[in-house]
Design goal:
single chain, about 180 residues, alpha+beta, 2,3-Dihydroxybiphenyl 1,2-Dioxygenase, domain 1, eight-stranded mixed sheet, 5 helices, about 25% helix, binds fe (ii) ion
Length: about 180
C-alpha cells in the first residue's frame, strides 16, 4: 500500500533536504473581487484571528492582508484583485476563491532549491526571488497536480517578518501569470 508515496518519501529523506525545512509559515488565499472581507470575517468569527498586516500590491493591482492567531503560525494571507485585469482576479475567475499556496519556512533556500531541482521539482521562476539584504528569499513550485496549489519555500533574514518585498512582489505574482490564463 502507498508504494509510490513510500518510494518518494525514501528518496526525499536520502536527498538530505529534511533538515532545512522547518514548518508551515503561511497559507495564502486568492479571493474574488469583493470577497476579501467576507473571508477575513469568517476567520475572525470562527477563531481568535486579528488583522496583522495589510499591503497594497500596486504592480498587480491587488490588496493583500494577513491574519494572525495569537502568536502562532501559520499566518493566513488573503489577496484580492482590484480590477478585472489583476492577476489575482484572473486566477479567481478561472478557479474560484481558494488556497493559492502553502508557504514553508526553510533555513537554507539555496540548498533546498538545488536539491529539489536535482530531484525534478519544477518552479515558476529559474531564480530564487529576493535577497538576504532585503530580508527575504522565496520561490514558488509549479502547482501540485493533486490539489492545484503551489508550495512556496521562504527564508527570512534579520527581523524581517513580511511575505514579500516591494521589489520582488511583482516578479513573484508575474511568475504565476501563465497559470491563471
Ligand atoms: Fe507567500
Amino acid at each position: 500500500m502507498f508504494e509510490e508515496f513510500n518510494k518518494t518519501e525514501k528518496d526525499r529523506k536520502e536527498s538530505g533536504i529534511d533538515k532545512y525545512i522547518v514548518k508551515l509559515d503561511h497559507v495564502a488565499y486568492r479571493v474574488k473581487r469583493g470577497e476579501r472581507e467576507k473571508l477575513m470575517t469568517e476567520f475572525t468569527n470562527h477563531l481568535p484571528y486579528r488583522l496583522y498586516k495589510s499591503f497594497e500590491v500596486v504592480s498587480s493591482n491587488a490588496i493583500t492582508i494577513a491574519l494572525k492567531l495569537h502568536e502562532s503560525l501559520p499566518i493566513i494571507v488573503i489577496s484580492e484583485g482590484l480590477s478585472d485585469d489583476s492577476i489575482v482576479e484572473k486566477y479567481c475567475q478561472k478557479y474560484g476563491s481558494r488556497v493559492h499556496h502553502l508557504a514553508y519556512e526553510v533555513t537554507d533556500i539555496d540548498k533546498v532549491v538545488e536539491i529539489q531541482k536535482s530531484r525534478g521539482v519544477k518552479f515558476t521562476t529559474d531564480e530564487i526571488l529576493g535577497s538576504e539584504e532585503e530580508g527575504i528569499k522565496q520561490i514558488f513550485t509549479l502547482p501540485t497536480e493533486g490539489a492545484n496549489h503551489i508550495i512556496e519555500y521562504i527564508q527570512r533574514f534579520g527581523d524581517f517578518d513580511g511575505f514579500f518585498t516591494p521589489s520582488n512582489i511583482a516578479g513573484l505574482m508575474l511568475s504565476t501569470e501563465k497559470l491563471s490564463e
